[in-house]
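Lecture 7 notes. Example A: sequence first, then its structure tokens.
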Amino acid sequence: MSGCSRPGRSSVAEQRATNRGPGRLLIAVYILFAIAATSRAGLQIATKFDEAPVAYLLSALAALIYIVAAVGLARAGHTGRRVALACCSVELVGVVGVGILSLADRELFPDETVWSGFGSGYGYIPLVLPVLGLFWLWRTRHDPA
């Protein structure tokens, strides 16, 4: 019976998988934001791109990052973790950078986007989400043997 895990016990790899436990909720939020950002950016680009092209393209970039981050977290392997880490890092820099830029130059952001105002139109979740993602990746990291 050696090599078999006991019922009710999860392996160390399962405990550290990014797609288990609270990671599932994090993935669900990323998927929700991917849908919301894609829909909003798509509509804005299709109907009024000439009004704020920078803002709308940044919304589309945010949507892409949310999609790729969700996939990275869901894959849970080494590559998935690296992809999620890159996405969460870029996302954090993006939401802070766009947040600052949208307050400094309101003409670039005449319409709300996902990251403008630090995500204020979405309850600041876009600002908190990459921090939670990075925390979850750190929490589920593999310690060297």
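Example B, a different protein, same format:
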Amino acid sequence: MHLSPSRVADEYEWVRDRTGVVTLINRVRDELGDAFETTVAEVTESEYRNEVDAVFANGNLAVNVAGLVAILRELDVDGDYPGFVIDELLGRELAGMIAGNQPLRLLGEATFHYADVMHHEDDEAAGVDDLEAALAAGFQTRLPGWKWKETESPFSVE
């Protein structure tokens, strides 16, 4: 695979146009909100696209995100199950990369596995469902809507 600025732009357009991910983001937020007894704001397609823009505006992040997106879009394994580890590994990494620095990175990675269990695409390559779960997990983690993210941490040292 060769990554060039034009290939990164192509992957950016693919991710930006994949607005069905917003439905998965909101399903994940609903279920996690119920599990943690909190209300989590829904994400709109516009918020998703704006955040995709922010991720791809950082060239160093964009090239790495684009590389993982491209691999997962093409990844398919005969019988799927033997490839279970590689698509999980790549999906988890992509979710964490999109989510941001710690602790958001770890939350994105953990949320990936939750989103992946909820989501399956039978009509595309095996890696696409992991890709969409990674996009949902990463973007839902970095987007506002969680109350704990909207307040100052009581653990900051002056």
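Note on Example B: The mean pLDDT is 92. The radius of gyration is 16 Å.
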